[in-house]
Amino acid sequence: MSDVHRASVDDAAVLARLLWDFNTEFETDVDEVDVLEVRFARILALPAIVAVLAEDDGRAVGFALVSLRPAIWFDGPVSQLEELYVVPALRDRGIGTQVLELSRALVRDLGSPEMHINVDEVDADTRRFYERHGFVNVEEGADYRMLCYVGPTSSAG
């Protein structure tokens, strides 16, 4: 079993490397590790950011990053699971589950009754993982899937 704990600003470099590994594994554009480290150091100091780090024999093997934002439809903040990653060689060993469970517990303790996550439709393994942990894309009583749209902050023109 891995050591899974809440990350701090001191973990910015480790989290930056893991995020870089995650994005390069899936051939996604990503900034350099030193740029990511500065960003992690900045956001980890914010009370609305929760990061979880998994280590195995002192080596970083996974992480999650969660943001919290105010919500109008209930009293506590809604949490958004921004990232969850486990190194490829250690997947299917329960590390992702440990990271997700601690993330959920931490944000629940901060008053968040609901967590959101965006998953690519083609990523069947990831979708199965989240569905196994109670996440849905069809709310009870609905007969349609929820979708996430992404766009620029300036109007198209």
TrEMBL record:
CDD domains: NAT_SF (cd04301). PROSITE patterns: GNAT. InterPro entries: Acyl_CoA_acyltransferase, Bact_Acetyltransf, GNAT_dom. The keyword Transferase applies. Residues 2-151 form the N-acetyltransferase domain. PANTHER family: AMINOALKYLPHOSPHONATE N-ACETYLTRANSFERASE-RELATED-RELATED. Keywords: Acyltransferase, Transferase. It comes from the Bacteria. Pfam families: Acetyltransf_1. This is GNAT family N-acetyltransferase.
